[in-house]
TrEMBL record:
GO terms for molecular function: nucleic acid binding. Belongs to the CvfB family. It comes from the Bacteria. InterPro entries: CvfB_fam, CvfB_S1_st, CvfB_WH, NA-bd_OB-fold, S1_domain, WH-like_DNA-bd_sf. Pfam families: S1_2, WHD_CvfB. This is S1 motif domain-containing protein.
Length: 275
């Protein structure tokens, strides 16, 4: 049986009143008439997403869902009933989250980070907001300074919790994040530390010397965009620097020190000037 919850490239076998029948070796699935492309030929390949329709039958669609099998995403609740919550994932049939898979009771119109999996008992696609059970916590194959992809899962007083490469749980400390983030926000990050207990610290900025270079480049770019002058210097408040340049005061001071040594800027009483 074709794996549901994923994309497949299938061959158009025949055209019928209800749609196109697509095949993969000995398996067949219907692409309903409303999703049939305007221009097609029997024997052509077409890429579709396969899931179960309202009658629990495999069906294909050319719509692109917001989440695929074994992935995380932030989805909005369309409605709830006595069975659970139903999420908007970009397809006609909503995605089901049973009560037992809700980290806390879901509410209509609110958004939650969820994981999409196939239920072994029913063979249906189900989402869960109890995401920790789907993250690797023992075997961690990451190295310090490694560039990774992260998605923000939730924000606490301590920092920004992220999902690393779709596999691990990590944390970026709030005082080291200089951009506005919310659950579902995706970006590149860098591994700062993998602790003995399996906890992982990440940074949204490159580490070490590369940070200074990147920060210096950001200062130069800001100067060029502001007629060669910024009203910022060593006496500026950290929040003012963060608001203008999205970096810490420490990184700013290192950046202007580097630029000054290279004679790219002049330091004035009321700010810095591009030479």
């Amino acid at each position: 049986m074709l794996q549901i919850g994923t994309y497949h490239t299938l061959k158009i076998a025949r055209d019928t009143k209800v749609g196109l029948f697509l095949v993969n070796e000995n398996e067949e699935v219907l692409l309903p008439k409303k999703y049939v492309p305007a221009d097609f030929h029997i024997g052509d390949d077409i890429t579709v997403f396969v899931y179960l329709d309202h009658e629990e039958r495999p069906v294909a669609t050319t719509l692109k869902p917001y989440i695929t099998l074994n992935q995380f995403a932030v989805l909005k609740v369309n409605y709830t009933n006595k069975f659970g919550a139903f999420l908007d994932w970009g397809l006609e049939k909503d995605l089901f989250v049973p009560f037992k898979e809700q980290a806390r009771p879901m509410e209509k119109d609110k958004r939650y980070v969820v994981y999409l999996y196939e239920d072994e008992k029913t063979n249906r696609l189900v989402a869960s907001s109890k995401i920790n059970q789907f993250l690797e916590q023992e075997t961690i194959d990451l190295e310090k300074n490694q560039e990774v992809d992260v998605m923000v899962s939730h924000i606490t007083d301590v920092g920004i919790n992220v999902i690393i490469n779709g596999k691990y749980r990590g944390l970026a400390y709030k005082n080291e994040v200089f951009e506005t983030v919310s659950p579902g926000y995706k970006t590149k990050a860098y591994i700062k530390l993998v602790r003995p207990d399996g906890k992982i610290d990440v940074s949204f900025q490159k580490l070490g010397v590369e940070v200074i270079d990147a920060s210096a480049q950001s200062v130069l770019q800001a100067l060029q965009q502001n007629n060669g002058f910024l009203a910022l210097n060593d006496d500026s408040h950290p929040e003012e620097i963060k608001s203008v340049l999205k970096m810490s005061k420490k990184s700013f001071k290192k950046a202007i020190g580097s630029l000054y040594k290279q004679k790219l800027i002049s330091i004035k009483e009321n700010g810095i000037q591009l030479n």
